[in-house]
Each structure stands twice: as structure tokens, then as C-alpha cells.
Amino acid sequence: MVAAEFRHDEPGTAQTVWAADPTWATVPPVEIDPQLQRIVVLAAHPDDESLGAAGLLGTAARLGLEVELVLATAGERSHPHSPTLPPDRLARARLAESRAALAEVAAGSATTYLRVPDGQVAAFEEHLVDVLVRILGDGRHTLLLSPWRHDGHPDHEACGRAAAVAAHRSGAELLQYPLWFWHWATPEQMPWSRVRRLALSPSIASAKRAAIGSHRTQVRPLSPVAGDEQLLRDDFLEHFLTPSETYLDERADDPALDDLHRREADPWGVDSRWYEQRKRALTVAALPRPIYGRTLEIGCSTGALAADLAERSRDLLAVDASPAAVAAATQRLGARPGVAVERRDLPGDWPPGEFDLVVLSEVGYFLSPADLDDLVARIDDALGPDGDLVLCHWRHRVEGWPLDGPAVHDRFRSRLSRPEVGTYRERDFELTVFSRSPLPEAEAGV
Fold it and tell me: What is the pTM of this model?
């Protein structure tokens, strides 16, 4: 969706136009999962969270849920021509207003301020993702709220994109709230199939109104002089003073690995770095059997390890979620007999049949904790009675993801039904083998 050009100081689509649209009658409600424990709300500027989500935050607080606000910027550029309030003082004022507003709906909630420059959030998207992932951790019982990624304001859209990636990596639920979209768009442009609505009780609606009023630098003039005008017009504020809130049920997605494979022919240096070549040779050498019937490699990337596994397998299925990676692996492996390369987003798109060997190399930490647990169970079910599993992962922190290699291996140790038969560990990576089969025995020496 491409946003129309708009000015904040000119009239936009009236709230009455939006309210009169008959499609509202078909919009389902926001459903709060009974297992939900926490809500994390991301705001590009102080006041975004109050306008778009104060009602849900207040509802959550009254249910006893933990609420945390993550502020990307202090909104110091809201009045660039103010003769009375320079950016540093405006930033302090807006941060104080945000604290007061949050206290109106969810008193005692924590705030994390990221100090991103106002108007430059897009340049800090990866930083936002990293911080959000650290805060969310295992996001199975967390709802992440953010500005909508098609809102029409660049800072809001950058926050929306970062939130979608962080939700995907952590496994958090994601809802996004529109802000300027109400101003420049019309009901015909709303993706109604993804819209959800939260009805607010009178007390919550009143608390939200008070929260919005706390942002005095935005809802009142700074002074009577030019440059200090009220930023948010009264007719714009009407969109947020209704007894309901609107969210979009957005798909959490993460194109980072596919983008990497599109940019670089050999993104991990598997063909040029001795470290990768040696690690691959050690992985293949660790296989307990000389030949396997049916092998699955999960996350094959460009197919370098798959080429070696093909020499030890009668049938090999190499899969990856990235279309660019699948294309590269297909080109490398060509038409080798007994080798298939498929695009599959595991664990959900699990291949049929039983496997004698599953290899998971440098992939486990790119899954959310919930998806990793699902993957462990699916591998356990798909391995034959004597099937083997080989894991190989980087041992250090993986920037922007909640898991690391040791955490991945520990999860398999605690959940897999077959025993660990060997681990090789050095400074940078860990190689672990799980098997029920007896390992090859050394012949007795003289």
C-alpha cells in the first residue's frame, strides 16, 4: 500500500466518514488469549502508544497483565520551528508526558527509551529488532503492539516492520495500530479482512482520554507565537476518542535470510573460508554410519553441506525457507540422482515420510523458541527407530535472535527421546550427535 501525501496541519478524512462505513459490522473483536502474560507496546514517538493502544494497555493492566512500553524516539522534532522550546527541552517534556500518560492506564509499567533520532527510525531498524527480541525473549505468552507498517509516516512504518520481524523471531503475537492512516486514507483503502476491534469500557475510555490529554505539547499550542501551534488537530484526535480501538492482525514475517541470499552468492563463505570447509568436514566425519537410506538436511542454504551428505545417502532431501537459497542449492546440486531440493518453511511445512538421518547445521537459532520446540518434536517423530540426528551450531550470541547455539543443543538434549552419543566442542562451534544405534567399535589393539 502506498500512502497518499498528507499534511498534519490540514483536514483529513473525518472520523464520521470512517464511523459510517457499514463494514464495521463484520469486524471481529480483539481476543485476549487466556494464556497471555504480557503486552509490549512499541511507539515511534511519545503519544503513539496513547493514541493507538491506551485502551488495550488499560484493559491488560486491569487483567493483571504486565505492560511494557518501548519508545524509539523522544519526538524532539515535532515542532521544528518553535521559538520557545528547543529540541532537547521538547524531548524531556515529551518523555515526561509519556510517563504521565502511561500512569493513567497502566500505572507502574516499565518504559524503555531507545534514543533513536526523531525522523530517522528507518536507519535504526536492525537496532530496534535486536532490542525488541531481547525484551520479548520467548514470546509465546506475549502480545507485541506497534504502529502499522503501512501507516504513511516513515517512523511509524519502520517500527511496524521491526515489530513484525521481532514477533517472528520471538514467537510473540502481533497487532498493529493505525495512526495517520485515519487522516489520509478512506474506508475503501482499509484491508478489512485483517481488522480487529476492541470495545472499551467507559472507565477505560475515560482513562484513555486522560492519557491522550497528558501529551500537552501535542494536543495544545506550546505558546501563541508562530511555530508553537497545536500539532494534532482536534478533528484528527477525534479518531482516538471513540469507545473502541482498531488493530490490524498482521503476519509476523522475517525476510532477512532470503534478502541475504539474494544479495550475496556465498553469504556464509562456505566455498571460500577454511573455517567453514573444516567445520563441514567434521560434521560429515561425525556421522555414525557410512551410508544412510533417507536423509533430511534442514536449512540447506546454498547446498554445500548437502553435496557432501549426498555422498553418504541413497536419498537426500535438502530444504530451506528462502527461495533464493533453494535456487542456489538447486544450481549447485544439479540433477544428481537421489537428491531433491525443496522450499519448505519448517517446522510447519514438514515433509512426509521417515528419515534415517536428519542434519541441522547453523539453523536452530534462526527459529523462535516455540518453533524450535516444535522442530524437536517433529524430528523425533520423523526419525526411524535407528535414525540419527546431527547438530552443528555457532556457540556465540546471534545478534537479533533470542537463541544461540548452546541453547539450541540444550533444548534437543532435554526434549529428544534418543540419547546423545557424542559432542565435539571448540571455541566457535559445537557438534552433537544423537543416536540409538551402537557406534562403530574400534578393533582390539595388540
Answer: 0.94
